[in-house]
Amino acid sequence: MHWGKLRDADLMARWLILLPALLALAAYGLGLGGPLLFDDVSSLTANRSVQIDGTDFDRWRTAILSSDSGPLKRPVAMATFAANHAIFSGFDPVSLKSVNLLIHLLIGFVVYRLSLLLLATPSLSGFTPGRLRTAAWLAAGIWLLHPLHVSTVLYAVQRMAQLSTLFVVLGLLVFTHYRLRWARVGAGKGELPAAALWLALLLMLAALSKENGLLLPWLMVVVEVSLFRGRWAGRDNPQLRGLGWLGLVLPLVLLGLILLISDIIPRAYLSREFTLQERVLTQARLLWHYLGWFTLPDIRNMGFQHDDIRWSRSLVEPAGTLLAVVGWIAAVALAWWLRLRYPLLMFALLFYLVGHAFESTVWPLEMVYEHRNYLPSIGPCLLIAALLTHQRVLGEKLRQGVVAGSVMLLLAILLALRSHAWSGQFSMAYYNVANHPESPRAHFFLGEALMQLHRDGIKEGLDEEAARNIMVNARHHYELMHEKAPLDLSAPVMLQIIDHHYFPGLLDGDDWVDEIETILARRVMQPSDRAALGVLVDCVVASGCGIEVQRLESMLDGLIDRYPGSITPLLQKYKYLADSEQRPEERLALLRRAFALAPRNGSVVYYYLLESHEAADVGAMYA
Fold first, then answer.
1. What is the mean pLDDT of residues 189-208?
2. How crowded is the C-beta side of 526, counted as CA atoms within 13 Å?
């Protein structure tokens, strides 16, 4: 189909795209005041470097390089957070999440434009202008309004994933725009270098927002092999088609070679409680979970925590693992077999799988998060929209606009319900537990929300009995977490703190300190454990927390001995000694060891400077 025939249809569609955007604006507006969560604290509210007023150029340089997330430090995303702080004079949930929502709407518009181009590719010549416009509109609407994306848009720090997606989709838009012309008449003078420069710029912006932006070239290959098939200057080009398939499989070959000749990836799993094999097998099941949540959006299955999903220990444990692996092999084989008759099926499947290639394969990340579907879901959106606008599917008399509008209205209602659940810490935590009662983290999150409710109630003059009941309820959920995840340090730490402050009589029956010592000796320390230990240390410094000082120091020394190559236990003991104003010589010795391990770590350098200044050690300060 010639692109010129779409101009009149596209003029009206420019106004139609406003409908799902307005629905998304209204639905997400219900959750903009919700709490800042987990990584929002470490990356934003506890990160002094990014909290600038915008008047000092050197502070901008420091701000954009202040993230510890990912090897590239994600400076593009951090620059937007610094601007957020400078413009709104602080980090409040509404301003942060409003910017996220605007980015989401912008991506939705780009998805619409990209869908128009993809549906006009040579292999999809059966689309009439009316159906093409409706399908592109519906694809963008489904993506904009899908409730699965709430945990991306309303989780402030996930702006990193949003910006990466924005630049990747813009890159695909540029590539498809040029490629449509090249498929008809070939490349004009200077077009190849121009396209390469634009794509290189967008690739850089995507990768410096979040590392999975590096998937842009691979996703371009997906578009090439599934929808263009080597078409060039009005003819099929077998060499170009072959290069496309080579580009599709080459990353897999390179990954296989890395796994064969290097132990860099398996070695990274030493800090995880699961192995490389367990993660890959579990991801095979999770990719079906994600797809199920997307195609049948039951918001009761969604949530911030999904640690109630069992890990796959082998191909037969749990039994669904083998079925999941066979299912993906069958799906890829079917898409290949039907690639000429149903090219959009191959496009959607490859886009989904390649879009998950970084976060849902071999890299030792957390097992499951909903925000990983933000980019990959664009492929299934286009396939679903094409199916829902096909007359053979709907019947001759059913109007496409009515169906498209009904689908978007239903999604908007589900989105509004889920956004409302994210509007407050307690409501979010309550629905997480209601929908995922076997999730240890959901119970921990509800315990945290109840403790915050208790603190707020005390400030507002809540009576003693009501305050005590809230704390009893919080304690109950921490106990449930400990029951479901006995090797997680967070629950026993919180139970020790609660019992020390509110229920001292229970300490005679429950030796939470003994539980903490057992966990520290047995479990590979996770980020949540390090945070929990920091909370315990703060409690001991502030009020004793019912723990003998010698016992706490023994725990910290044990971690230093167990992890000789890590600066974390060294810094934890240093902060304990510094906060309690003890033994400056030992503090400096701890920092010397940490500095030898990580001489470029910002925290180590900062504390080392402070201690060296206190000790009047000018040589150490200079170093």
1. 94
2. 15
